């Protein structure tokens, strides 16, 4: 790995140059990783999300929302703010497709890990993030709880 690759942080400018398809990513995420890692796959995905966030330059919530879109993770929006909890919805065509496919069970642990770590960077509070799938209305509720 070159020195430039090691020091370059991810941001919406440089990830927009990447070409990818969701199908290949989903196969690795929901099929291959669980095959290799077994029951530890969701935990590893969560920490992979945190690791991606550590390598990402995000300075505000608009950057966060834009990053989710560029990554193909869906449209993220803050819907409720409580004293010890932030509630986000993850919506869009990509979410509907993931929820309605019949090949494998989906989770959003990678996104949760990324969100928890990014919120910590933005707010200087520790967060733990959990997802709740609303299949009827095709959205994911991401709850970020202050630690």
Automatic annotation (TrEMBL):
<dbReference type="Pfam" id="PF10702">
    <property type="entry name" value="DUF2507"/>
</dbReference>
<dbReference type="InterPro" id="IPR019642">
    <property type="entry name" value="DUF2507"/>
</dbReference>
<dbReference type="InterPro" id="IPR024096">
    <property type="entry name" value="NO_sig/Golgi_transp_ligand-bd"/>
</dbReference>
<protein>
    <recommendedName>
        <fullName>DUF2507 domain-containing protein</fullName>
    </recommendedName>
</protein>
């Amino acid at each position: 790995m070159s020195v430039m690759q090691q020091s370059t942080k991810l941001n919406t400018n440089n990830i927009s140059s990447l070409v990818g398809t969701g199908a290949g990513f989903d196969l690795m995420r929901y099929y291959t990783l669980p095959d290799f890692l077994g029951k530890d796959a969701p935990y590893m995905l969560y920490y992979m999300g945190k690791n991606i966030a550590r390598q990402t330059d995000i300075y505000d919530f608009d950057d966060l929302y834009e990053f989710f879109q560029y990554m193909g993770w869906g449209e993220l929006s803050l819907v409720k703010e409580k004293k010890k909890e932030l509630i986000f919805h993850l919506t869009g065509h990509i979410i509907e497709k993931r929820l309605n496919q019949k090949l494998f069970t989906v989770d959003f642990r990678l996104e949760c890990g990324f969100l928890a770590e990014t919120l910590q960077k933005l707010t200087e509070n520790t967060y733990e993030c959990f997802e709740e799938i609303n299949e009827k209305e095709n959205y994911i509720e991401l709850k970020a709880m202050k630690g």
